[in-house]
Amino acid sequence: MSIPEVVKDPPFNITRASHVRYYVKDLDRSVEFYTEIFGFVVSAIENGIAYLRGTEESCHHSVVLMQNADKAGTSECIGMRVASEDDIHKAKAHFEAVGGTAEIVERPHQGLSLMTRFGEGFPPVELCSSMTVLTRTMNDFRSQKGGRVLRLDHYQCAVPDATLAVKRFMALGFRPSKYTLDEDTGKVLSIFLSRKNNPHDLVMAYAMGPRLHHVAFVVSDLQAMLRAADIAANMGYGRDVEHGPGRHGPPNGVFLYFRDPDGHRIEFILPPMQFMDPEDQPNTWSSTDGSSLVPWGNGPPQKWREQMTHFDGLEPAGGPLARWTSLTDPRHPQKT
User: Fold this and answer.
1) What is the pLDDT of residues 288-324, one digit of tens each?
2) C-alpha to C-alpha distance for 79 and 16, rounded to whole angstroms
3) What does the alpha-carbon distance between residue 88 and residue 102 come to, in Å, rounded to a whole number?
4) Contact 124, 311 (CB under 8 A)
5) Is 25 helix (H, G, I), strand (E, B) or coil?
6) 197 domain residue, yes or no
7) b vs e for 234-249, b when ≥16 Cβ sit within 10 Å of the residue's Cβ?
8) Has residue 43 been placed in a domain?
9) pLDDT score for 321
10) What phi and psi, each to the nearest 5 degrees, are found at residue 101?
11) Rounded to whole angstroms, how far apart are CA atoms 172 and 132?
12) Domain of 106: which CATH number?
């Protein structure tokens, strides 16, 4: 298939990936994990909910941890920021017009917010118009812990119909920075979509879904990644350092993946390249070009391919279980 044209005048203005809402079994344990290992800052803990942010983030939260033993290990939604309250109203009209759902929700420390879905097979996305502003802690070096996480960068979701997902999200002004095509059918297997000036805010891959594969956060350097991994080992979570350090292909992103106490997957990445000029063209990968996806080292463990966070109340369907089928494709040449 061909990728749709970039929509330069979308129906409303999404500005960036904003926040994720996770259900956890033991809030105290999860807060300790996120602050001591990752280095998140606690903005507030109230009514069984912890609100966390990175050291560069002034908005109130990028991670919301909600204690609920029955729903632990699932996510309520991923979040996107919009430019204004007017965009919330425009978004509500748009989702309803295309047959999706949109409901105004009340959220502490957030301005006007809207829970949206395009329909079956799509992840729930909460749109947020504003947040309470707090002081950044990026220069308060004495308070920084663990990996000293800086800021949220992107989400990666599995969807059972990547072709439809590309069409729906690109209609909202998302711009592709790279995508993977099936060598035989030409269908999109994965796509990296951006609304800010780097390659990704939302990554979608063809697999059983909707499921949330990971949420990625930027850290300052490789030492921050290794420090987080070392502290994880000290605290008894060494085997939850799941994959990496390693390098993705273009745009040369260095990564390290963790699993939190409830199984949610967090990726640490180094500051990504800029992708901001309209004439800059996306990278295209073939489904058999595993050396481009991971140019050195072994591929990820099977659990990284198959295990993902479910969205609360949504049963995944359609598509293969694994997120990356290309790296295990029998057509992929294996060198010895």
Assistant:
1) 666 666 778 878 899 999 999 999 999 999 988 886 5
2) 9
3) 10
4) yes
5) coil
6) yes
7) eeebeebbbbbbbebb
8) yes
9) 87
10) -125, 150
11) 26
12) 3.10.180.10
